[in-house]
Amino acid sequence: MGLLSKKDAKLITDPLADNNPITIQVLGICSALAITAQLKASIVMAVSVMAVLGIGNVVISLMRNIIPSKIRIIVQLVVVAALVIIVDQVLKAFSYELSKTLSVFVGLIITNCIIMGRFEAFALGNGPWRSFLDGIGNALGYGVILVIVGFFRELLGSGTLLGFKVLGDPIEKTGLYAIGYENNGFMLLSPMALIVVGIIIWVQRSRNKDLIED
Amino acid sequence: MSLKSNLHNLKEKYKGTKMAPAFNALHTFLYLPNETTHGGTHIKAADDLKRTMNTVIMALVPCLIFGMFNAGYQHFAAVGTPVEFLSWDAFYIGLIKVLPLVIVSYGVGLAIEFLFAVIKGHEVEEGYLVTGMLVPLIVPVDLPLWMLAVAVAFGVVIGKEVFGGTGMNILNPALTIRAFLFFAYPTWMSGDKVWVHGAVERAQEVANGANVDVISGETILGSLAQSNVAGYSVADMFFGFIPGSVGETSTLLILLGGLFLIFTKIGSWRIMLSSVVGALVMGLIFNGVVSSGWITESSKFYGLMSETFWHHLLIGGFAFGTVFMATDPVTASQTNKGKWIYGFLVGFISILIRVFNPAYPEGVMLAILLMNVFAPTIDHYVVQGNVKKRMKRLKVKTA
User: Fold this and answer.
1) How far apart are alpha carbons A184 and A37 in whole angstroms?
2) Alpha-carbon span B337 to B23, nearest angstrom
3) Nearest by CB to B180, which of A181, A182, A186?
4) Which residue of B has its CA nearest to A190?
5) CA–CA separation, B323 vs B257, rounded Å?
């Protein structure tokens, strides 16, 4: 990456793998379980979080020297809340159906632990450009897991991807369904999302033994 | 060269390699190994883990054989050409439907156990021997084999291996497998069509306009929930001539299996007894609610609530779950006082779920899984209570 210095590039790449907010820090699990039954919802959620976290980190970073430390949590909340409302309104305006699927979970981005965590841990102590990169990086790390989970849950649970019937038609019995395949209803329930996240964590830690705590 | 010495030679040949655990397991599976431990004094116990498992399997065999007869008997009764219960025709249908379930269950489960043993380099553990036998007994006879294979893979990996293998699991693997099937493929695991072989196809024919009778393959729990009638006599319920999962129908044979387990000191009589008591108490409470007139016949719970309380022991999977699954030594409570509490709650909650949630008619599965999760907590408080009692005694003495 010629554009970014090595140190800055790490801000993006670290959260993707060895410091992933979901699988390593185990933050933001609630939304990962709730909205990943469909791939499309996962992607929209990931993009929304990226917008909120990227912009929010910059705003907090710019204000970091004038926020009194005693009321910093309230200030952070105001910033997130404002950004989330904007995202919510945009979603409602341009893709109403999807915003209904995501329902309350867009609003609940406010309580997503990753966002407050990054504000506290990074934006309060770093300049705007680095904070921006850190926000994008962490949102990407979050989004990657969401997309992986959403991919498997939609494929195995509904037999579709982004709404396309990739495995054939379950009612007309075409494709895989012709030989007796059936969708796995368990995949659509939240517990299965937890198990899929668990499997991702398992795979990641058995590939990189340094991550295993004892 | 006998099979035994062949196996022994193979084992010697692969000693120290990655594949060694697989051969060791095969060897000790079938024979008592020749080698003895050296040095020190050892107490030899005849009942190692494999013998324990084999004993449980022996207790399950009558249920399996009966299940085969019953599968055919129910099938012919349902399609309108009833046959004698103990007839070759009935057994044949049962054999060709049930045997593949057993083979798939053992094949997939043991393959995964062997795989994990080779990868992780430990000995193959025998935990799957009983699970593999339990699984075909607690599923509907018409379950597609690939679904069973997927569920077994899930149950063994997620239910057991991720926790560290046999003896470390929190949930009973056989019930994990059944719960997976239940939530993943509900159309194959509940309703009135799945319990009798051929009922699904038959319903399809009727829907297409064929001139045949619709068969009723409804379990007693299902018909009680829907139409308030049991439809079978108490004797049928006790001996097991009723539709249901393969091996769960005959309370008589389960009872004999249970007595065998108690006699060989492998199953805990405390858990079995307290679970029965728990179920009876809950059944009595519901009977009391009905007889005091708090609910009327129009209530959707009326059928199941008004069923005579001790009938609950005979219908559904209660007896099977209590005898063979609640007593699983790994997932049940370990302390004696804990076993009473654990068993009582298993029975109590089973009937509670059974009556109040007709969508999950088999409450015993969910009740046992729930109590599996709570078993360590129960043990913790029993042990703490004991510690406190002894501390008190110590203080009195020293004071």
Assistant:
1) 12
2) 41
3) A186
4) B183
5) 8
Whether A184 has its CB under 8 Å from any CB of chain B: the answer is yes
B225: phi > 0 → left, psi -120 to 50 → alpha, else beta; which? alpha
Question: Complex ipTM, two decimals?
Answer: 0.81
Closest-CA residue in chain A for B145?
A180
Q: State the average pLDDT for chain A.
A: 84
How far is Cα of residue B334 from the mean position of the Cα atoms in its chain? 19
Provide DSSP, A130-174. HHHHHHHHHHHHHHHHHHHHHHHHHHHHHS-BTTB-TT--TTTT-
8 Å CB contact of B147 and A186: no
**Other beta carbons within 10 Å of A24:** 18
- Chain B residues within 8 A of A184 when measuring between CB atoms: 150, 184-185
d(CA B152, CA B139): 12
Three-class SS state of B375: helix
Structure pTM?
0.84
Q: Which of B150, B162, B186 sits opposite A185 (nearest CB)?
A: B186
Do the Cβ atoms of A157 and A188 come closer than 8 Å? yes
Phi-psi region of B250 (alpha: psi -120 to 50; beta: other; left: phi over 0): beta
Cβ within 8 Å, pair B147-A182 = yes
Between CA B121 and CA B137 the distance in angstroms is: 32
Nearby residues of A170 by Cβ (< 8 Å), 6 or more positions away:
A159, A177, A182, A183
With b meaning 16 or more CB within 10 Å and e meaning fewer, what string describes B166-198? beebebbbbbbbbbbbbbbbeebbbbbbbbbbb
Distance CA A150, CA A144 (A): 10
Residue A153 CB: number of other CB atoms within 10 A? 24
Q: Do B144 and A184 touch (CB under 8 A)?
A: no
Nearest CB to A180: which of B144, B158, B184?
B144
When scoring A158, A184, A204 by the number of chain B Cβ atoms within 10 A, the one with the most, hence best to mutate, is A184
pLDDT attached to residue B309: 81
pLDDT in tens, B182-226: 888 888 877 766 777 776 666 666 666 655 555 555 677 766 766
